[in-house]
Amino acid sequence: MGRLNPILVWSLCLSLCLFLCPTSAQLKTNFYANVCPNVENIVKNVVTQKFQQTFVTVPATIRLFFHDCFVQGCDASVIVASTGNNKAEKDHPDNLSLAGDGFDTVIKAKAAVDAVPQCKNKVSCADILALATRDVIVLSGGPSYAVELGRLDGLSSSSKNVDGNLPQPTFNLNQLNSMFASHGLSQADMVALSAAHTVGFSHCNKFSNRIYSFSPGTQWTPV
Ligand code: HEM
């Protein structure tokens, strides 16, 4: 893991814009001005505390936001827990490796917001995740930027909706381009967004075949 580089910072700012642009007409930076004017500071304080406990807060929160936004939009549906008769997004195999510190960040920030009587039940977890992502970027050395607010939390969360909607490490360029294009993102956007991997880690089973199956003379690693 390391500090964010400029490409990553740019990519994340871009991701926030592009993920949210389709609904930007309904979003505004002062969305909570009347009902919870201090929401940004409340979230920032919680995120700062988490960051001071563990740097994992940074990659965990960034990836959580990405996995939330690519499935059913940025509606915090990735945070919803499964019930007896519903397997939620977070229990889909593609989400099982989401680091717990991302969830913990949002849950703690939401609790802190709701502890203020004026703010109770007024701020969506979707907005808190968007703010927390901005905050971890700032805390890890990136620039600050305004986050437009007003997202609604999803009313459903189903593991089935994750199927085929998150990129796999085995994807070739066409598959990656196609998936990002389905979200209105170009190849250049996809490459820039992939710089998010400047921070965080990957389990060996996600890439070991690309190291140990390499044959001299081939132009690219096997997938
Ligand atoms: C381009 C297609 C992408 C593929 C194929 C991909 C795949 C992966 C894989 C396989 C891992 C390792 C997971 C594990 O072993 O636990 C990972 C980690 C990560 N990904 Fe992606 N990813 C993609 C795009 C993105 C984007 C767009 C973002 C955010 C803007 C992102 C953010 C992250 C972060 C921060 C981690 C590290 C998580 C941690 O350390 O907890 N990824 N990704």
TrEMBL record:
Name the residues that bind substrate: 167
Keyword Disulfide bond carried by entry: yes
Query: In the Enzyme Commission scheme, what number(s) does this protein have?
Result: 1.11.1.7
Do you know which Pfam families this protein is assigned to? peroxidase
Q: Does the keyword Iron apply?
A: yes
User: Domain Plant heme peroxidase family profile, which positions?
Assistant: 26-223
Catalyses: 2 a phenolic donor + H2O2 = 2 a phenolic radical donor + 2 H2O
The record lists heme b as bound by 197
Q: Record-annotated residues binding Ca(2+) 1?
A: 68, 71, 73, 75, 77, 89
Residue stretches in coiled coil? none
Site (Transition state stabilizer) found at: 63
> Looking at its record, which EC class is this enzyme?
oxidoreductase
Give residues annotated as binding Ca(2+) 2. Answer: 198
Alphabetical keyword list: Calcium, Disulfide bond, Heme, Hydrogen peroxide, Iron, Metal-binding, Oxidoreductase, Peroxidase, Secreted, Signal
Disulphide bonds annotated for this chain are 36-119, 69-74
Please give the superkingdom of this protein's source.
Answer: Eukaryota
The positions flagged as active site in the entry are 67 (proton acceptor)
Q: Which cofactor does it need?
A: heme b; Ca(2+)
Signal sequence, renumbered to the chain: 1-25
Which GO biological process entries does UniProt record here? hydrogen peroxide catabolic process; response to oxidative stress
**Note on cofactor:** Binds 1 heme b (iron(II)-protoporphyrin IX) group per subunit. Binds 2 calcium ions per subunit.
Role description: Removal of H(2)O(2), oxidation of toxic reductants, biosynthesis and degradation of lignin, suberization, auxin catabolism, response to environmental stresses such as wounding, pathogen attack and oxidative stress. These functions might be dependent on each isozyme/isoform in each plant tissue.
Q: List, alphabetically, the PANTHER family matched.
A: PEROXIDASE (PTHR31517:SF57), PTHR31517
Q: Which family does it belong to?
A: Belongs to the peroxidase family. Ascorbate peroxidase subfamily.
What is the name of this protein? peroxidase
Naturally occurring in which organism (per UniProt): Prunus yedoensis var. nudiflora
Task: Give the classification, highest ranks.
Answer: Eukaryota, Viridiplantae, Streptophyta, Embryophyta, Tracheophyta
